[in-house]
Structures are given as structure tokens and as C-alpha cells.
Design a protein that fits this description.
This protein is α/β, with parallel strands linked by helices. The chain has eight helices and five strands. Strands 2-3-4-1-5 form a five-stranded parallel beta sheet. α6 (118-131) links the parallel β3 (105-109) and β4. α4 crosses α5 (93-102), α4 packs across α6 (118-131) and α6 (118-131) runs parallel beside α8 (155-165). The longest helix is centred in the first third of the chain and has 14 residues, at 54-67. The N and C termini lie far apart (41 Å).
């Protein structure tokens, strides 16, 4: 758990609030809690607007994966892209790719939050290609996966990323108002 470097290391599935109307089904989370999806190298995509708890849910699933004995790594997407660029520049990319490949669950949080270059998306494709069918990747994004082609820009790279990440993945689409919005006092 310490090595995973989760943004919310104390997030856990047992503490998820299902009362907020955001389209989150308890049955879905109970199914995901079994970590079978990680055992079989499947992916998970959590999408929705700001403040719906995407990062918390991702960290809760990752924390459960750690408890189940799976090596896990968490990356905020803009930081991952920076590390990939630095790795290209200083020659440390092979060791970074090796580190990412070792994680049975890789969490990429807030994909699309910052613009990334075509080269950075090609590096992401290499990460995903190394993991495809072997290890699991959990991605959170404010953008629905249907808009990811626009984010990537290069249609060929976007198709390859989508092919390795989206097809057959578990999808959690959150909707509604931000949970951070102050409640009306009556």
C-alpha cells in the first residue's frame, strides 16, 4: 500500500457513500471488490464530471487490490506524462516501463486533464501494450471514452489505445452534481 502511493490511501470500498445520486450501483462495486477483474487482467474506466468521486473510487479499488496482494501503482495522468517525457530525455524510460509493467494494477487518474503531446500518447500506448491481457489498468477521466479520440489527436494511436484499454473493460459512468457542492440547509 505504501509503494502504491495512492492519492487517498485510506479510501476503502466499505466507506463508499451510495446515497448521493451519481449513478453508482452498489452491486457494481461489490462485483469489483472481488478483484477477479485484476486476476484476469481486465481494465476499469471511471468517467464523470468533477467532484463525483472518481479518484476516491479508484483509490478504494486500488486499496482493495493491495489488501488482496496485488502490486499496485497510482499515477496522476499529467505526472505520468511528465515522467514518460523525462524518461525519453534522460534514457530512464526502459526502467520506468519495467516498473509500470510490474504493477498488477496501474491507476491513471484524470486522463485528459492536461493536454499531452502525440509522443506522450505513443508512450502511453507502449505502457498499455506491455500490460494488455496480463495486468489491469484503471483510468479515471472527466471525458467519456467516446471523446478520447479528440484528446489523443492521432487517430491511429487513439484507436490502438482504445483497443487495449476500452474493449471488455468494466465501465463506471458517474453523473450528477459535484459531491463537494455545499448542501442546502433547511
Amino acid at each position: 500500500l505504501k509503494n502504491a502511493k495512492l492519492r487517498f490511501p485510506s479510501a476503502c470500498l466499505e466507506d463508499i457513500d451510495y446515497r448521493h445520486h451519481r449513478g453508482l450501483q452498489r452491486s457494481t462495486m461489490e462485483h469489483m471488490a472481488g478483484s477477479d477483474w485484476i486476476q484476469y487482467g481486465q481494465n476499469c474506466i471511471i468517467t464523470g464530471s468533477t467532484g463525483l468521486g472518481k479518484t476516491y473510487l479508484a483509490c478504494a479499488l486500488a486499496q482493495k487490490a493491495c489488501r488482496d496482494g496485488y502490486r499496485t501503482a497510482y499515477f496522476y495522468a499529467p505526472k505520468l506524462f511528465r515522467e514518460l517525457s523525462i524518461g525519453q530525455a534522460d534514457g530512464s524510460l526502459p526502467s520506468l516501463l519495467k516498473k509500470l509493467a510490474k504493477a498488477r494494477l496501474l491507476v491513471i487518474d484524470d486522463l485528459g486533464l492536461e493536454k499531452a503531446s502525440a509522443g506522450q500518447y505513443r508512450d502511453l500506448l507502449e505502457v498499455l501494450d506491455d500490460r494488455h491481457g496480463i495486468s489491469s489498468t484503471l483510468v479515471t477521466s472527466q471525458y467519456p471514452s467516446a471523446k478520447w479520440h479528440e484528446l489523443v489527436g492521432d487517430a491511429t494511436v487513439a484507436d490502438a489505445i482504445m483497443d487495449r484499454l476500452i474493449h471488455g473493460s468494466h465501465k463506471i459512468e458517474l453523473k450528477g452534481e459535484s459531491m463537494r457542492k455545499p448542501k442546502d440547509k433547511k
